[in-house]
From TrEMBL:
Domain called Beta-lactamase-related: residue spans: 40-347
InterPro entries: AmpC-like, Beta-lactam-related, Beta-lactam/transpept-like
Transmembrane intervals: none
Domain of life of the native organism: Bacteria
A Pfam match: Beta-lactamase
Protein name, as recorded: Beta-lactamase family protein
Length: 449
């Protein structure tokens, strides 16, 4: 079994690595990363295959004020990527016989007012109904007792096990369960249960006062597209839902070691990477990961967003390829998702289509203006200003579209989704063909009269 596994890895390796040891897709990956501005907040990218770091790069500034560049060792707050570690810690407790996923939350937190009828599994897969509709002063420290009290007062969005809604609060409650069972703080429990056994040193928790070597400064962006400091907040708030930090290489290596380490890790990872179900409905989440597909390749992925930072990972377990992208902006010019999925597609030899910018006539561009029906009341709205088309979905942010060859519109600095305008015999735009994630198939969005 082990011999065959190693042979598979060695065979796959030759498809992506040249004789020099450099991936043959590296130049294309470099072009993607170069779309990140060099003079502002930036990104670090790491690709791990078969337990080896085969691609690592960074672009942009760790500190705009000091003009210090990012490096492979730069650390970032990773936001909701924390949930993968939290889920793995809970699963490790189950493997050790210290809890069961179908335990009622009330078994471990009997005083928690929303615990009735909720199981640990429902916290993990976001079917608990625990609400995120609570607030606390962002800049004030928050401990577990206070956090649970606030979550409990918010009540539930729906009865447990009847619906699905992503819940940060649910993972904060999981952190409290970790503390109850281990007698440690949630982050110390995650280090003891997951990070230390897997040899991951450069992912961890640091409170507001701790000076962390290599920590990149976080930034946000104004409506005028100017980098600014994010709002002041305490990292104690997100807890086990989003308070870890780390470097890109360690995030990618964590995924490999979760899936490929000694037992019980492979069994734990398989459970985490399996889509949860609600009756006959397959949910868009497993246990701390989001199972998905990248151009026909089975993957798990997760995003992370917290004030000043963005993060994304893609892991293909069948190919043992992990890609991690960490950014020090919560409104980056190029999204962590776009970078991670495009580079993962290169590493997996299922690349996205690329389009060359082209000059369209002013009349053709102006004809795009209008509203297009996505589904129900949801709309894509295209506006043209100074000859440049901009698109937004409902009340979301505007994104610039780039006219390209083949009568295709692409999102600037994105490279995943693209749009084909549909014309009638008079040349008027009657609909849009929206190609999500570069797929050949499309969604027809009819123009509102």
């Amino acid at each position: 079994m082990k011999k065959g596994f190693l042979l598979t890895i060695a065979t796959a390796w030759t498809a992506v690595v040249s004789a020099s040891g450099v991936p043959d897709w590296k130049p294309k990956a470099d072009v993607i990363v170069e779309s990140v501005p060099a003079d502002g907040p930036g990104a670090c990218v790491a690709v791990v295959k078969g337990g080896q770091l085969i691609y690592s790069t960074s672009r942009g500034l760790s500190s705009i004020e000091l003009n210090v560049a990012l490096s492979a060792a730069s650390r970032f707050r990773v936001g909701s990527l924390t949930k993968t570690v939290t889920a793995a810690a809970i699963m490790k407790l189950q493997a050790e016989g210290r809890l069961k996923l179908d335990d009622p939350v009330a078994k471990w937190l009997p005083g928690f007012p929303s615990a009735a009828g909720i199981t640990v599994r429902e916290l993990l897969n976001h079917t608990s109904g625990i609400s995120d509709a609570w607030e606390a002063p962002l800049a004030e420290p928050l401990d577990t007792t206070h956090r649970l009290a606030l979550i409990g007062k918010a009540g539930s969005d729906f009865p447990p096990g009847t619906d699905w809604r992503y819940s940060n609060s649910g993972y904060m409650v999981l952190g409290a369960i970790l503390e109850k069972i281990t007698g440690l703080g949630w982050s110390d429990a995650e280090r003891e249960l997951v990070l230390d056994p897997l040899g991951i040193d450069a992912i961890g928790y640091h409170d507001d006062a701790t000076i962390v070597p290599g920590m990149a400064s976080g930034y946000s962006t104004t409506a005028a597209d100017v980098a600014v400091k994010p709002q002041l907040y305490s990292i104690t708030g997100p807890g086990a839902a989003g308070a870890l930090d780390g470097d890109a290489g360690s995030v990618a290596m964590l995924l490999h070691r979760l899936a490929s380490g000694p037992e019980p890790w492979p069994a734990i990872f398989r459970s985490m990477a399996t889509s949860a179900r609600l009756g006959s409905q397959q949910l868009p989440y497993g246990l701390g990961t989001a199972p998905g597909d990248l151009h026909g390749v089975a993957i798990v992925e997760h995003s992370g967003g917290i004030d000043g930072y963005s993060a994304y990972y893609v892991y293909a377990p069948g190919q043992d390829v992990a890609v991690a992208v960490l950014e020090n902006s919560d409104a980056p010019k190029v999204s962590a998702r776009s970078l991670a999925r495009r580079i993962a597609a290169l590493a997996l030899d299922v690349p996205y289509r690329t389009f060359e910018p082209a000059t369209w006539s002013r009349e053709t561009i102006n004809a795009l203006e209008g509203a297009y029906v996505i589904d129900g009341d949801s709309r894509h709205l295209i506006a043209v200003r100074n000859g440049v088309p901009w698109i937004r979905r409902d009340g979301g942010p505007e994104k610039r579209l780039v006219p390209s060859a083949g009568h295709v519109l692409i999102y600037i600095n994105d490279g995943t989704d693209f749009i084909e305008p549909v014309l009638n015999e008079r040349g008027a735009v009657t609909a849009l063909k929206f190609h999500a994630d570069g797929q050949a198939s499309s969604r027809l969005e009819t123009r509102v009269p």
